[in-house]
Design a protein that fits this description.
heterodimer; A: 380 residues; alpha/beta; D-Maltodextrin-Binding Protein, domain 2; three-stranded parallel beta sheet; 14 helices; 36% helix; disordered N terminus; B: 276 residues; mainly alpha; MetI-like fold; two-stranded antiparallel sheet; 13 helices
Amino acid sequence: MNKYKSGLKRIRNFGLSRRNFNKGALGAAAITGLATAGIPGIANAATDVTFLGWEGYDSGLFVDSYLEDNDINLNTTYIGNNDEIVSKLVSGGVGTIDIVTPYMGYIPMMVAADILQPIDESKVPNLSKIHPFFKDDPNIIVDGVRYGVPFTWGCAPMMYNSKVITSAPESWADLFKPEYAGKVGMSDDPLGNLMLAALLATDAEVATQLTKKQLDDAVKYLISVKKIARLVSPSWGDLADGMSRGDIIITFSGWETIKKFCADKGASHIDYVYPKEGTFAWLDTYSIAKDAPNPDIDHKLCDMIVDVPAQLFIGDEFIQGITNSDAIAQLGISKDFYPYDDLSGLASKATFFAFPPIEEGSGKTTFSDWLEAYETFKAA
Amino acid sequence: MIKKNYLLITPAIAIFIFLFVFPFIYFFLISLWKIKFYKLIRDYNLINYNKAIFNYVEIFFTTYSVSIPVAIITTIIGFYYSYLARFKTGRYGLVMIFIALITLFGGYLMKIYAWKTILGNEGVINSILIYFHIIKEPLTFLLYTKVGLIITFVHFLLPFAILPTYASLRGVNANEIDSMKDLGAKFYHVQFMLFFQRCRTGVLASFVFCLLLVSGDFLTPFLIGGKITFIGNLIAPKFGQVFDWPLGSAMSFTMLTVSILIIVLVSYLFKLTDPK
């Protein structure tokens, strides 16, 4: 699907000189004036809708012709991590950005920072089709008000090379087997890494509610993983590259879709497993930025992304977890990648964690403390 | 006449002031502020510099443990490449310079990913060595290590080292070298004189280019460095993910100061080679 086809405008430069421009402008004005006289609305410019989110998260919007039919330009800016959404909105993005796609854990913090606007549920009828396991996640609904439409999810399993590791690992502790030393990969994901490390190396009841000591223990654990790691990857794509090329054979943290990335590179022997200690899960949402220029269109897009066609596209083309129950029932190849048959039992394998505290005072470490502590891991 | 000259350089000065001096002052001021819940607070203090200097010593060490060797290796290779192009290859010298420059058209990211393909476990080098039974297991020190970083950086930076040294060597007359040889100078005498004295400006310019570009880089260590972190890898998130512009600015100015100190030291060492 190319962007021209999907309704985005192609701009061509005809090498205008000032003289040609004047001639052309006069002619165009005359023709436009004649052609549009008495036809209200025909001369309207296209509407620009600004999208800030992960690459591919906009693709479901092009499944039908809504954008094209309504002459909407979707201006996309892709992010490298969720924090970019926050930093872009607080540094001048409010009032210019329409749709953002934060991880559900970020939403309470973004609401506190006053950079999101509530979702009017009456304008998102497809919300009723979202599986109850995802629909009303407590992070998405702040003080009884909805701030996100959950449309995709996933977990952080352990990826492994089944050619080299012939029987699936059972525990995260398997990473430390001597034969895997120097062949371990991990992603450079502060929140995900610290959550998983807290789950494995601390006695915290909730992996995002950590005391200073628990945070230190989590960082120590991460450093111990880094010692045996060969690659701390900047992106999932690079982690998949490393797995496909055989540079690494097992990972700390991962993503179900990496299996598809690897298969696309000819490495169909890359598989994943949920180790017995469990892992974390994530839920991404369509949210509307505060003072978004096109709130009505934004609500329509929020509805479209959880409609069956878009969900099937996200599920089967991108092998991402989807949330619409009707779409799940119709899924094709991607159905086996996720535990759709037992979504309620997913909680025993992977947990949706709330975001760490954002302000001091609760006795727990804040997200700023986490980022600072993570630098110790980076420096190690 | 003088007035006319001033007029001619005014656009250049204006661009320099708006695109370099003003942002420089702005970020210096920011480096003295602080951040609170994603908002800049104009509270002048040196806390960020305290953090930048004392919290990141190991990272600075790692960064310069790669950037200094890269700057030295690239400058030496660049100098000898320029020497060959200037004195040894006759009319093909310009072709050599053109070949060096054309590598710049390739794009930075493309080169990084090309080296990943070449240096990886199943990359070109390991595949050839395994095919000819020279090794049994892939050489893992080639990728995600300082070795891999140095190889990638040297390849990328070579044109930047060649240009200034070649420009300097253009100012050297071949007769000067012949005269030295006639007076009994050996090959290494000639090279020493050219490298440290006659082409000092060009050689130092190459060194400075390479040192600054590597010290401030964050993409190459991200993609080739495996688990190696450069100071740039911690500065970049400060302007995005972490949103701590004051600390990021302070770290940038600290890095700049360290780099300038290294450049001053190297210039001093070059001066020591001056004839007494």
